[in-house]
Structures are given as structure tokens and as C-alpha cells.
Design a protein that fits this description.
- The complex is a heterodimer.
- Chain A is mostly helical.
- Chain A is built from 10 helices and no strands.
- Chain A has a single domain, classed as MetI-like fold.
- Helices cover 70% and strands 0% of the residues of chain A.
- Chain A is globular and about 65 Å long.
- The mean pLDDT of chain A is 89.
- Chain B starts with a strand and ends in a 5-residue tail after the last helix.
- Chain B contains 11 helices and 10 strands.
- Chain B is of the alpha/beta class.
- In chain B, the strands form 2 sheets. Chain B has a 6-stranded mixed β-sheet, sandwiched between helices. A 4-stranded antiparallel β-sheet of chain B has the order 2-1-4-5, covered by helices on one side.
- In chain B, helix 6 crosses helix 7 and helix 7 packs parallel to helix 8.
- Classes of the chains: A mainly alpha, B alpha/beta.
- The interface between A and B is medium-sized, with 19 and 27 residues.
Amino acid sequence: MPFDPVAPLFPLFVDLPFEQGYVRSIMYVSLYVSVTAVALSTLFSIPVALLMGFTEFPGKQFVKSVINTGMGFPSVVVGLLVLFAVSNQGPLGAMNLIFTKEAMIISQFVLATPPITAISLAAITGVDENVRDAARALGGTRLDVALVVIKEARYGIATAVLAGFGRAISEVGSVLIVGGNITSADGISKTRTLTTAIQLEARQGQYDTAMVLGAVLVVLVLTVNAIVVRFGDEGSMNR
Amino acid sequence: MIRLSNVSQSYGEEQVVDDVSLSVQPGEVVGIIGPSGVGKTTLLRILALFLDPDEGRVELDGEAVWAVDEDERLALRRQVGMVFQEASLFDATVARNVEYGLRVRQDWDERLRDQLRGLVGGTEPAAAVEDALKIVGLHDKLDQAADSLSGGEAQRVSFARALAYEPDYLLLDEPTSDLDPRNTGLIEDAVAEARDRGIGVVVATHDMHQAERVADRVGVLLGDGFTEIGPTETIFEHPTDERTRKFISGELVY
């Protein structure tokens, strides 16, 4: 029998108020969408932060204000814009992304990128200039210097990734709009996430299910935080 | 030989280095003395091939440094090491710091292999790493975290870090200005050891006694190029330039 992550969480529930498959599939969708979006966003954000931190280019202040504005950008508006983009008439219409996990990843990416970039940028510019000079003086190429900076800023970058993940996994409005909160006929989540499921269950008066989903969400966030923090510590032990 | 010919550099209005010529041979120690803010650091950055000066020519072993492409310049730059006034160690162990210069000279699959080896069971530091740390008397601190060192130890590690990959030239920018006499002495001993190994060393310092102790030749920088440059003894005992004489006797105060 395959490992069931949900069952051991609720040994006291004799009669579960929901299908385990339902919760499992929701967890899967939530994690899949958020982790993918945050991973892509991190790959995009760190080079941008390095570029912004160490080079001068025209329009840099403008890019900075766009990023800062993006941190507070209403997520429902992002959802709406992504919905237009992926709808049949939109620029990505041909890809048939509407009400799919991929569309949700796009909107999560848009939401997670500003905080990840801004916090990484703060961490990266906080790295002592002398340390960069030292790496260069010791024969480092530009890439080597960038790697040193990332390593020195790793705690700040871990914080940035966690902030982005926090924003993505707890997001309701935009994933509801672009994902549609859909389950298939057999009750397995297609685009339903923990947050949108909680919202739906609560509205339908299924408070116990909503509470359980809420608990699962909190445990998930705590677990991911613990893993990332642990990862950062490992890095500091084994440098 | 590193050779600067009529090099000038200014930042905005301010002329920081004005028409300086200087050559550094392997196996000699050149001291550059002068008050703070006279352009010693800028001069070292030009010598380190960090900075393309506004005017003048920079040659390393006959190669015009700023005329070649970036890859060639990297190869030239890698013959020169630099130690800064602040130790600026990486947030890692002493061994990792000292082997950095060796690591960046490896190709990428070698580096990856070393990383993986480090993950499974740790790696022995290269002989050059231990050797460099021996010169500064810290070979028993290999596995210590850099941020647990005292200021003097950190600066000595920083020196070892620049020695480990055996550069042909080593530039020191006020290497002991924050250090106590004991650590200062250890650094000065390490300078002598580097010279004995055939490394050309440049020490920029505002401490003229240090220059007198370690340098074979001394250049006096008082604002507009060297007022005088020559063998240490000549500069200190029989300076020909009036300003040099006043600076060395302490009459000329900045």
C-alpha cells in the first residue's frame, strides 16, 4: 500500500467528514502550483537582483519601483490580468491554459516574483563590497563573484524564497479566478487548492472540513519553512 | 614585471593619481608611503588590473594589459594577488577561504566533483593551503569558522588566501593598519617569506617605519606622482627631494 500522508494526521477522526483522496489531491495541487511557481520565480529573481545590485543601467529606478509596487499589487487584479492573457481572445489563448494548473502557476509566478526579487536584492546589496573585491582579486570571474555573493546572502535569499512561497500558497483570489476551483466528477481536485477549498467549504457550512484543510495548510507552510531553514543551516555547517 | 608608465586617474574633478611610473620586479618588496587619501589605494587597484587608468600604460610581463581581450586579461590578473586593509573573509571555514583562489582556477567539472566529495565525507585541503597557512602561523585553524577569528588572525588568513595560489605579484593595501604589534610582525615576516619565494610584493602603507622594515625600494607619494622613489636606505637616509625629507622627518604634516 502506498504511503498515505493524510491518514496518520487524523488518527482520532473515526468518521472523516471528507474523502481522503479529495484532501490529498487538493494538497497536491496546492504544493505543485506553489512550489513550481516559486522555483521558477527564484530562478528569475536572483539573476535580476544580481543585475540590479551590481550594475547601473538606464531605468533602474523605474524597475525598482515596479518591483516595490508589485509587492503590494492586489492579487485579484493579477488573477484578472492573467485570466485575460490566457482566455481565448488573449495573447496566450492558443495554449488553452484557462482553468488549468499552468495558468495558476503563471499568476503565482507574477505574485511571488516581486517579494522574492526585492528581498533578494536587499540581501545581495547587503553583502560587503570588500568581499566581492576579494573574490575578484583572488582570480574570480564575474560568475565566481556572483556565486560568492549568493552564498554570502543565502539567509536573506532563503527568507525571500519563503516570503514568495508564503504569498503563493496562501493566495486565494487570483487562483480562484484563473484556476476556477475545479474538481472532477469523482471529487478529485483539478485546480482546487487548499485556500480555495477552505473558502468553498466554509461558505457551504462544512466548517469541520474547512478547519481540517486549514490545519493541513498551516502544517504544510510550517514544514516547508522548517525544510528551507534547515537547508540554510546545513549550508553554514558545510561550507 | 609589472610596469606602470605615466599613469593618471581622476574621479570627477579630483585628480587622484597623477602621472605615476612604477615597476615591480619578482622577488622585491616595493613600499609605497604617503598620507591617507593620496591615491595609494587607487594606484594598487591599477596595479591589480582592477582599474583601467584614464591615461598611461599598464604592462604585465611585457603585455599591455588593457589592450588584450577579457579572457587574456583574466589570465594576467590571476598572476596578481591582493590583500585589502580589511580581511573581508568569506563566511566559511579558514580552509575554504584559503583554497578559494585555487578553486576558481579549476574547471567546472573539477569544482563540481570537489563539491560532491565535500558533501559525502569532506575533503583534505590542498598542500598549498596548509603551506600558505603555515607561513602566517595558522595551519592549526584549518577547520575553524572565519567569523570566529580575531582581527589579526583574520588578516593573516586573508594574506594566506592570496598566497595559496602562488601569484607572481602580491599587493598589500595597508595590511596592518588595524593590527596589534604581534600580528603586524607576523604579517611582515610573511612579506619577507613571500619575497624569498620570488614574489614581487607592493606594500602601500602610511606607516613609514613599516616600509623601512620590509621594503627594498620605497616610493613616496605626496600628491602629484612620486616625489621620490629609490632604494629604501637612500630614501630614508639621504632623500634628495625636499618634500620627501620633510615628510620622512615628520615636518610635513598632512
